[in-house]
C-alpha cells in the first residue's frame, strides 16, 4: 500500500573527501612510517617509565642511612597552599597530641579533620592544591607539646593566683551580705538628688580597682571558720572578767588561737608529724609554729589572721578585733614584715606541693598512671625548691615530708613503666609510647637518679635498675625495623651515657581553688590513708 502516489526524487549521497586513487606502493610506505613512529613512541614511553622508576627507587632509599635513622620523628603540622605563584590561599593542619587527632586552621575557623582529607589536599588531590611545607618533631621530646605559651614571671603569676582567690573570697562575702540584707528590714530609699558612689574615677563605665597580691589575706581566709569560732568564744566572756584581766578582745583572741595551735603542733610532733595528717595545712600560724619561729613572727601572723574586714560584720567583738589588728599591723617592725613575707611565699608553695601530691595519689587510685606520675613529679621538684629557697630553717618543717610522697612516687613509676613496656611490645603505635616515655617517665627517672647519686643503694637505686632493665631486655628481642628505631630512641633517654641529672622546674603551677584549698588538710589525710593501705598490701 502506498501512502502517497508519485515517484520519489533521487537522493544525493554526501561523502568525506578522499584520495581518488592510492597505489599499493604508497600504502606500503605509509604503513611502514606509521609502524616506525609507533615503535619510537613506545620506546620513549618505556624510557620515561624506567627513569621514573629509577627516581622513585632513589627516593625510597635516600634516607636508608644509619646516621639518619638514629632518632625518630613524627609529622606535627602541614601547611597547604591553593592557587599559583601570583595568588592563592593558605591553611594549616596541626596534630593535637592530647586530642589524638588533627585540627584544620583555616583563617578564623578551627575544625577537626581526618588524615584522609589531609592526604587528599596535601598531595595534589585537587587542582592547584598541595602541601608546601611540613613540620616534624622529635618523638623523644614529648615535653615540646606540653607548654605552648611562655611561663609568666613569678610576681605576675602570684598576682593572678591571688587575684583569683580574692575574687572567690569577694563572692563569699557578697553572698553573706545578701543573706544579711534579706534578714534585715529594708532601708529608707536614698534621696533622689544624691549622686551614686563610684569606686575609683568619675566614669561609671570604667571602674578601676587597684589590687596587689596579698598572700596574708589569702592565708587568713584559709582559717576563717576557726577564727570565727574564737571570736564567738571571746564574745561570750563576761565584760567584768575582761576588765579584771586587763586584756583587750584582740589579745584574748590571738592568745587563744596561739595556745590551741601550739598544743596541736606539739601533739602531732609526738605522734608522728605528717604520717596521717599535717596540722600545717590548718593555717599559716600552724606552719610558723611548726618551724619554731619567734613570738614576733607569730604575733604578726595572728594579727593578719584576725584582721579580715569581713569580721567587722559578726558583732562588736569582731569589729573591735579586726580594727585593732589592722592598727597594730601598721606598727609592726619592718624587718619582721619582710621576713614573714618570705614565709608566706614558702607556705604558698607548700600548699601547691601538697595539692599536687594529693591529686597524684587520687589519679593513681583511679589507675590514671601517666597523669598521676606527672603530678607526683611536679610535687617532688617544687618541694625540693622550697627546701633550697629562703627563708632557711634547720628543723625540716618548711617543706612537705617526703616519706608519703616517695612511697607513691615509687608505686607510680613502677606501674607506669610496666604498662609502657607492655604497650610497646604488644601495641602498634611505638611512636606514642616513645613520646610518653620522654614526657612522663624520663623526668621521674632523673629524680631517681638524683636520689641515687646522693644515697647509693636503697629503693631508688633498685627501682632505677628495674626500670632500665625492662627496656634493656629488648636488646635480644626480634623487633620490626620501625619498632627497633623507636626502641633505640627510648633506650638513649632511659639509659643515658652518664648519671647526670636535669631537674626541670614546672613552668606554670596550678593553685587549688578556694573551695578545694579549704579541704586540703582532709584530702591529705585521705591520701595518706590510701598510701598506708597500699603499703600494707
Description:
- α5 crosses α10 and α11 packs across α18.
- By secondary structure, this protein is an alpha+beta fold.
- The N terminus is likely disordered.
- A 5-stranded antiparallel beta sheet has the order 4-3-2-1-5, covered by helices on one side.
Largest sheet: 5 strands, antiparallel
Please state roughly what percent of the residues sit in beta strands, choosing from under 5%, 5-15%, 15-25%, 25-35%, 35-45% or over 45%: 5-15%
Strand order of the largest sheet: 4-3-2-1-5
User: Helicity level, as a percent range?
Assistant: 55-70%
Q: What oligomeric state is this?
A: single chain
What would the principal axes of the Cα set say about the shape?
A: elongated
The helix count comes to: 18
As a whole number of angstroms, the C-alpha radius of gyration is 38 Å
Structure class: alpha+beta
- Give the low-confidence spans: 1-12, 188-212
What order do the helices and strands follow?
HEEEEHEHHHHHHHHHHHHHHHH
Could you tell me the mean pLDDT? Answer: 82
How far from one another are the termini? Answer: 112 Å
Number of DSSP strands?
A: 5
Amino acid at each position: 500500500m502506498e501512502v502517497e502516489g508519485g515517484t520519489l526524487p533521487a537522493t544525493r549521497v554526501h561523502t568525506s573527501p578522499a584520495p581518488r586513487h592510492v597505489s599499493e606502493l604508497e600504502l606500503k610506505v605509509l604503513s611502514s612510517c606509521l609502524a616506525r613512529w609507533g615503535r619510537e613512541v613506545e620506546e620513549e614511553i618505556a624510557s620515561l617509565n624506567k627513569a621514573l622508576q629509577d627516581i622513585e627507587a632513589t627516593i625510597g632509599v635516600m634516607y636508608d642511612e644509619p646516621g639518619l635513622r638514629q632518632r625518630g620523628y613524627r609529622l606535627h603540622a602541614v601547611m597547604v597552599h591553593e592557587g599559583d605563584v601570583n595568588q592563592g590561599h593558605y591553611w594549616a593542619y596541626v596534630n593535637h597530641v592530647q586530642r589524638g587527632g588533627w585540627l584544620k586552621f583555616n583563617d578564623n575557623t578551627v575544625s577537626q579533620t581526618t588524615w584522609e582529607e589531609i592526604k587528599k589536599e596535601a598531595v595534589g588531590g585537587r587542582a592547584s592544591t598541595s602541601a608546601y611545607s611540613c613540620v616534624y618533631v622529635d618523638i623523644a621530646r614529648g615535653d615540646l607539646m606540653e607548654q605552648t605559651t611562655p611561663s609568666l614571671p613569678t610576681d605576675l603569676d602570684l598576682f593572678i593566683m591571688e587575684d583569683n582567690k580574692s575574687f572567690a573570697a569577694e563572692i563569699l562575702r557578697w553572698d553573706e551580705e545578701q543573706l544579711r540584707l534579706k534578714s534585715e528590714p529594708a532601708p529608707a530609699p536614698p534621696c533622689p538628688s544624691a549622686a551614686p558612689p563610684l569606686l575609683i574615677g568619675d566614669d561609671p563605665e570604667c571602674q578601676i580597682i587597684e589590687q596587689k597580691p596579698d598572700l596574708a589575706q589569702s592565708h587568713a581566709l584559709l582559717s576563717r571558720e576557726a577564727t570565727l569560732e574564737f571570736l564567738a568564744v571571746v564574745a561570750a566572756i563576761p565584760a567584768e572578767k575582761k576588765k579584771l584581766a586587763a586584756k583587750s578582745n584582740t589579745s584574748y583572741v590571738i592568745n587563744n588561737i596561739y595556745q590551741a595551735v601550739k598544743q596541736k603542733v606539739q601533739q602531732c610532733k609526738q605522734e608522728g608529724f605528717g604520717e596521717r595528717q599535717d596540722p600545717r595545712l590548718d593555717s599559716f600560724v600552724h606552719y610558723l609554729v611548726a618551724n619554731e619561729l619567734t613570738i614576733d613572727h607569730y604575733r604578726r601572723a595572728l594579727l593578719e589572721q584576725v584582721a579580715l574586714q569581713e569580721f567587722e560584720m559578726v558583732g562588736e567583738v569582731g569589729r573591735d578585733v579586726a580594727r585593732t589588728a589592722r592598727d597594730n599591723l601598721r606598727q609592726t617592725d619592718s624587718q619582721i614584715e619582710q621576713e614573714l613575707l618570705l614565709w608566706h611565699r614558702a607556705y604558698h608553695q607548700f600548699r601547691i606541693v601538697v595539692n599536687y601530691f594529693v591529686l597524684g595519689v587520687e589519679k593513681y587510685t583511679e589507675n590514671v598512671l601517666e597523669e598521676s606520675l606527672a603530678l607526683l613529679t611536679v610535687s617532688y621538684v617544687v618541694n625540693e625548691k622550697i627546701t633550697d629557697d629562703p627563708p632557711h630553717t634547720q628543723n625540716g618543717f618548711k617543706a612537705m615530708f617526703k616519706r608519703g610522697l616517695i612511697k607513691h612516687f615509687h608505686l607510680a613509676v613502677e606501674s607506669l613503666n610496666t604498662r609502657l613496656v607492655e604497650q610497646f611490645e604488644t601495641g602498634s603505635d611505638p611512636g606514642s609510647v616513645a613520646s610518653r616515655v620522654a614526657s612522663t617517665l624520663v623526668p621521674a627517672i632523673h629524680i631517681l637518679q638524683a636520689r641515687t647519686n646522693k644515697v647509693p643503694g636503697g629503693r631508688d637505686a633498685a627501682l632505677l635498675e628495674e626500670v632500665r632493665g625492662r627496656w634493656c631486655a629488648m636488646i635480644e628481642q626480634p623487633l620490626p625495623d620501625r619498632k627497633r628505631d623507636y626502641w633505640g630512641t627510648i633506650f638513649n633517654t632511659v639509659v643515658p651515657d652518664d648519671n647526670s641529672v636535669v631537674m626541670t622546674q614546672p613552668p606554670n603551677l596550678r593553685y587549688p581553688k578556694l573551695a578545694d584549698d579549704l579541704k586540703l588538710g582532709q584530702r591529705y589525710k585521705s591520701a595518706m590513708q590510701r598510701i598506708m593501705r597500699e603499703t600494707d598490701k
